[in-house]
Amino acid sequence: MSHQYTAPRSALIVGAGMAGLATAWYLQEAGVEVTVVDRKGVAAGASWGNAGWLTPSLTVPLAEPSALRLGLRTMFSPSSPLYIPPRADARLAQFLLALTRRCTHRQWQVAMAALSVLNRGVLAAYDELAEGGVAEPTRASDPCLLAFTDEAARRPMVEELEAVRAAGQDVAYELLTGEQAACLEPTLRPDRIAAAVRLHGQRYLNPVAYTTSLADAVRERGGKIVADLEAVNVRDLGGGPGGGVAVRGAEGQELRADAAVLANGAWLGRLAAPFGVRTRVQSGRGYSFTMPAAGLPTTPTYFAAQRVVCTPLDAERVRVAGMMEFTAPDRPADPRRVQAVIEAVRPLLPDADFGRRTEEWAGPRPCTADGLPLIGRTVSPRVHVCGGHGMWGIALGPLSGKLLADGMVSGRYAPELAALHPLR
Ligand SMILES: Cc1cc2nc3c(=O)[nH]c(=O)nc-3n(C[C@H](O)[C@H](O)[C@H](O)COP(=O)(O)OP(=O)(O)OC[C@H]3O[C@@H](n4cnc5c(N)ncnc54)[C@H](O)[C@@H]3O)c2cc1C
How far apart are CA 379 and CA 172, in angstroms? Predict the structure, then answer.
């Protein structure tokens, strides 16, 4: 006897970051009633202070051979762009070992093939959100610059772009001299920046404005967003009458629905483990701050060797972001990391007054060792996961939400999700 799949009519989504909000929005498209709960509120995690780049040409796995070279040389130095506290616990050590094992060309290609399929659709998902009423726009990143002190420093990036192209993506770029880069972005001084790459076809957004706007759209369509509710437990109540899921909050409150989506970023592991998810989601904290635009690039610019990004938030303000610190998501921010970001780019941006920075922030990228997100159902047909996007959850969030929502509603998951299965 064949069982007919019953689509959920209601869903509880844990986490009001980009992953959770996008999933909620796409579930609403299919007529599902959604409630999003967050232990704090909208964009209380990584979705707040990130760099907002929607750059499919740069959306590559975390584990890359050059990361390993850089990491081994510098990882215990507080000023390194990749920082690991010297007293790594056993679970972090395990994650780092798994990450290190993936830092080979072959593994990179395998993960890249899975990401490339997604990368081709990420901007279209943003267009769909815009057409569907999300008011905050995404912006064409024109120009989108990658800046280097010399040509040798640029070489690994060019190799990476070629590898992304070889994986089947449409990657359009041109190589610039320092003078050419300065014509496009005068704060890049040719005596400091001698080589650049201009990427075409990329976009960016203001992360706070965008997630707020997406949350507004979810509410306008009848969804609820419940702040200050920390989910401490998710239960599968089975199928049939009286079935579904129950999410219990830290203060004992209980919410019920037909299905649940765990989209709680770097905190995902504890709620997802009882549902068979064994892939560790490790917090890779980044830091950012906001600067007045004077002396800083007012077009999206990545100082790739320094691993620091500058993104205009509006005409007057630029966000400066960087650092990968493998540590617990709720540990107090370490001011030395902000200093490390500043010192990395100060010589390149001599006219910027970093003393005028505001909005210092630290937030956890939800990283997986294989560089791929976790999207799909768990051992329970009622409990789903959308997370683990690491460095690229803003770019990949909307498409991930769309693919997951489609799968939840139809019972059939798109083939591109096979490599991202949460039970892998
Ligand atoms: C410095 C920096 C720069 C970045 N730049 C880019 C970029 O340019 N482009 C890009 O694509 N990506 C970028 N990223 C990565 C991107 O920010 C993340 O991948 C993305 O925001 C993850 O979204 P998320 O919704 O999965 O998690 P989060 O945004 O972290 O959301 C998780 C939410 O879950 C809530 N939560 C946690 N536990 C519970 C619980 N038990 N109950 C209820 N709620 C809970 C949290 O409060 C939080 O709001 C950057 C990240 C950093 C740190």
Answer: 41
The finding on whether 289 has its CB within 6 A of some atom of ligand 1 is no
Residue nearest to atom 35 of ligand 1 (CA): 15
How far apart are alpha carbons 370 and 17 in whole angstroms? 22
User: Residue 2 pLDDT > 60, yes or no?
Assistant: no
pLDDT given for residue 97 in this prediction? 87
392 lines ligand 1 (CB under 6 A): yes
Distance of alpha carbon 221 from alpha carbon 350, whole angstroms:
48
Pairing assessment for the beta strands 259-262 and 254-257 based on DSSP bridges: unpaired
Helix (H, G, I), strand (E, B) or coil at 202: coil
User: Residue 132: inside a domain, yes or no?
Assistant: no
Domain range enclosing 190: 54-106+138-203+281-367
42 CA → ligand 1 middle, Å? 10
Q: Look at the chain and report how many structural domains it folds into.
A: 2
Q: Are residues 256 and 272 in the same domain?
A: yes
For the segment 127-175, what is each residue's pLDDT rounded down to a tens digit? 999 999 999 999 999 999 999 999 999 999 999 999 999 999 999 999 9
For residue 176, which of 154, 201, 204 has the smallest C-alpha distance? 154
Q: Rounded CA gap, 149 and 89, in Å? A: 37
Closest among 342, 341, 298 to 316, alpha carbons compared: 298
pLDDT tens digits for range 183-194? 999 999 999 999
| pTM given for the model | 0.96
Helices (H), 288-371: 335-345
Strand segments, DSSP code E, in 93-165 are 139-140, 144-148
Q: What residue has token string 């059939």? A: 412
Inside any domain, residue 163: yes
